[in-house]
Amino acid sequence: MRKFAIAAAVAACGLVAQPASADTYNLTVAGASPGGLWSLLGAGLDAAIKAAYPGSTVTYQTSGGGLANVAVLQRSDADMGIIHDAELLVAKKGEEPFGAPIENLRVLTYLYTWAPMQPVINADFAAEHGIETFADLAAEQAPVRIAINKRGNIASEVALAMLKAIGADPDAIESWGGDVIYAASGEQATLMQDRRVDMTLNSIFVRHRSIMQQADSVEVRLLPVSAETQAAVNEATGTSDFVIPGGSYEWAPDDIPTVTLGAALVVREDMDEQTAYNLTKALFENHEKIAGVHKAMNALTPAIMAAQKVVPYHAGAQRYLSEAGLM
Fold it and tell me: What is the pLDDT of residue 305?
């Protein structure tokens, strides 16, 4: 009996002293369509959390994208959601499709900050109308046929904000003889190749195949965005400044300033603080698992992961960031 009591006491002490790594998490993350970058990010999140907490699983859940993921989190239909920073601002302000401000969204980590709005214009059209900068579209009242992303996509909302900031909203463009066309990335490339549009404006990674396809059959240029327009769009939409490095494309030798969308991993404020701390620590300390899912993610660093500013980081995430000297 004495031996049994000692063994039980040792076992009990072992249970109390178990390290955090003995925990496991079974979580879902709402993303977008299957097969895209966000699904790869889901795999990266799974690998990062597994590395810290063996036996854990993060299951990627298809969704309508960032705006839809706000509603998914509100319904508790997923534990985490990938949401663009501009979409977080829409939710925070309570703008459409939300009827009131949503105040319980919290971030665990930024995932990327490099999906810039890329103003790609047919070089012949630009030369004909004296267009050298994005603002020249309005200054020259160019009859531009411009393709932006589909209605309801946050990239199209940012594109409209950019056009509004220079005085070239759709009504103005139509009055100059142009048009604004709503089309997905692949459709935009086809429209440009077929000369049915003069310009595309979309949030995509540098050297995205849709831009490379445009440049394969049409001589194109990138239009720089002024600091004044950047500031106005950032304030209105939650984007941030970005520079497309000169030489990123063979036909774009100069740095091109613009604005960019980023994406964050978001939870609700009522997530348990210790859970949020553990997950954040796992993601930051195993960030190479996320960075390794695609070459477009190679630039991910803890400093970038800690740089989101639209909504607060979760209290548990803040505790980790403070301990790590990242906040």
Answer: 98
